[in-house]
Amino acid sequence: MLAPVEFSPEKILLKEIRPENLTNLIKAADVADSIFWEQMFPNYEGLLKPQDRANQELREFIQFNYGPYDILNDDAAVLPVGPKQPGVGFYPASLSRDEFVKYVKNHPERAAIFQSPYTVIRGVNAHLKAVPYHIAYRGKVNQLSDMLNRARAVESHPAFREFLGQRAGDILTDDYFTSESTWVRLNDNPLDLVIGPYEVYEDQLMGLKSSYEARVLWRDFAESEKIQHFQREIPSLCKTLGPYLSKMLVMSDSRLELSVADILYAGGFARKGIPAIALTLPNDEKVIEEVGSRQIILKNILEAKFNNVAWPVINRVLLKPPSDPEQSRAHFFSHTLFHEISHSIGPHIIKINGETTTINRSLRQYYSVLEEAKADALGACILLSASDNQNRQVFLDLFVAGFLRSIRYGQSHAHGGANIIQFNYLLKEGAFDIDSDSGKMCVNHDVAHRAILKLATEIIRIQERGDFDLGKRFFESFCIQNQLIERLLRDLEDIPVDIRIKYRS
Ligand SMILES: [Zn+2]
């Protein structure tokens, strides 16, 4: 069950910008959306029997999941299509993980293009080839570039206009350095856009290939100003986390721009399933190192999730729930912010046997879920360091109860899996008990605080070593649905799992 919410850009349109500025961005987002369809499940229409086509509920389900697999039920198929391929449209269906690894090992000269986030793999067995996105999706990529150029022609903000033009060019070559660098420097454009291939979550075969997405954003200047001071304070907060973490958590000197925005429209990966509350982009390590990154909290999504889902869940599962929804909403906001910041601190580029690589490449299919668990736990540690005792207790209650909210996304979802890991880890550490009369959760605050720090440390150690086997073992030990989780989830059946956004264009 999802709580329906509707986001409409109308009121902004009328007051502050000309309609064509927004319309072109929305059309571009729709093209990015159609490329994502091709990546996920090309030609699902062909699968629908004539009687299915009139079935609105089924069509809505397929739109939500971008295919016939139920992402809220571990990708169970709802049409007779066979199980979901972990490599979806990025790899040939017959290609196994081991075959890919072996191929790259035997063809080191092709490793870069095969592992590129911007290529799809085609062919069979020994005859594999890597095809760049701009060739694989040529017609749509050209159309997208055209829409971005049209948006540029009517845009009046100079830096944003420059970004639109560069992005229009970069997607034609899959070399995104110039436009991503310009995007990172944007800091006062009211209308904002994320568009192109970014996140690798949908590649469950290798965790390498990026999904097309689009988000049209409206900057909230007042809220953005309130959080910008954290950027300066993070290094000293990290120093309070003990010698190992303060050594590992080096904030790069590069710029980190924190801001708050409302989302007006979304397409592709950004529209699939559970909407994210925040984003940290770009993912390209070179841009991050040389120019920096931006972190954006999506305020209208955050508020809708808190009101419709998080607050009811917390009140249901805790024996003594917090009394003040405003204070809790503020903690929810802060943890989202520190979660995002945590993605950008800690090890990224590592050395294994003298060779430079990334954690993503080393931990492969376990990378996303472990990185999300790290960001949650580390974000919590930073928030706890910045809080007084009373706030610390309220936050720990919200944090621990909040696992149940996200576990409902399912084990195959990066955030769902990350929350199962945290729940089981904290349970093992004695961070919470279950009250024998009511069956509700009781948080042991001091134990929980120590356990969260221990968890963050343990994951960062795995990342620092880039040890695939260690990551796999850790994942297999903690990412387990158990009877206690199932019982707690049964009590939440009447509370929406998340929100379903309807975007009015
Ligand atoms: Zn995250």
CATH arch. level architecture? 2-Layer Sandwich
CATH topology-level fold name: Fructose-1,6-Bisphosphatase, Chain A, domain 1
Can you tell me the overall shape? globular
**Tell me about the biggest sheet?**
5 strands, mixed
Q: Which range best describes the helical content: under 10%, 10-25%, 25-40%, 40-55%, 55-70% or over 70%?
A: 40-55%
Low-confidence stretches: none
**Count of runs of 4 or more consecutive helical residues:** 23
The computed structural class is alpha+beta
Number of strands: 15
First and last CA, distance: 24 Å
Order of strands, widest sheet: 6-7-8-10-9
Portion in strands:
15-25%
Bound molecules: zinc ion
What is the highest CATH level, the class? Alpha Beta
> How many domains comprise the coordinates?
1
Radius of gyration of CA atoms, rounded to a whole number? 22 Å
**Averaging pLDDT over every residue, what do you get?**
92
Description:
- With 505 residues, the protein is of the alpha+beta class.
- It has helices at residues 10-15, 19-40, 50-53, 56-65, 97-106, 111-115, 133-136, 138-154, 158-170, 177-185, 221-227, 230-239, 243-248, 285-290, 299-317, 325-344, 359-363, 367-385, 389-407, 414-428, 445-465, 468-478, 483-490, and strands spanning 2-7, 69-70, 76-77, 119-124, 127-132, 191-197, 212-219, 255-268, 278-281, 292-298, 349-352, 355-358, 432-434, 441-443, 498-503.
- It has a five-stranded mixed beta sheet. A two-stranded parallel ribbon has the order 1-15.
- A hairpin with a 5-residue loop joins strand 2 (69-70) and strand 3 (76-77).
- The protein starts with a strand and ends with a strand.
- The site of zinc ion (ZN) has 4 residues, from helix 16 and helix 18.
